[in-house]
Every structure is written in structure tokens, then in C-alpha cells.
Design a protein that fits this description.
alpha+beta; 3-stranded antiparallel beta sheet; 3 strands; 29% strand
Length: 72
């Protein structure tokens, strides 16, 4: 089972997410509050068996229209 850990910085209104996929890969990303809402909607639609690192990255990029993973 994959997990998502969220940390919020109230001063900047940014949130740090750390995705851990079922395959054990950890993916950190920083998003705005609005982007978090969009990503949460996308995550609800992804079936657990499809939650590979690549599927997760593609889904997040499509949802918010940018590649937040390139920041890491």
C-alpha cells in the first residue's frame, strides 16, 4: 500500500508531500494549497495496483500542468 505524508508551511502557504509507492519508492514534491486539492482529487481516482512511481508522476503532472518532480 502506498502512503502520502503532508507537511505545511503556513507562512509560505506551500505544502510538502512525500509519496511512498507500493514498490517502496519515495517521491518528495512541493505544491501550493490549490495544487494539493487538485492532486488529492487525482489520487482518489488512481487504483492502488496502478500506484507505481511512474503512474503517480504522470497523474500529478497532468493534474497541475507542471512537473514539480523536476525541482527535487
Amino acid at each position: 500500500m502506498g502512503t502520502v505524508t503532508v507537511t505545511r508551511d503556513h507562512a509560505t502557504r506551500l505544502m510538502s508531500l512525500v509519496f511512498e509507492t507500493p514498490e517502496g519508492k519515495t517521491i518528495p514534491v512541493v505544491l501550493s494549497t490549490a495544487e494539493i486539492r487538485t492532486v488529492a482529487d487525482v489520487l482518489e481516482s488512481i487504483a492502488e495496483p496502478e500506484l507505481s512511481a511512474d503512474a503517480l508522476k504522470r497523474s500529478v503532472i497532468a493534474a497541475i500542468g507542471r512537473d514539480p518532480f523536476a525541482q527535487a
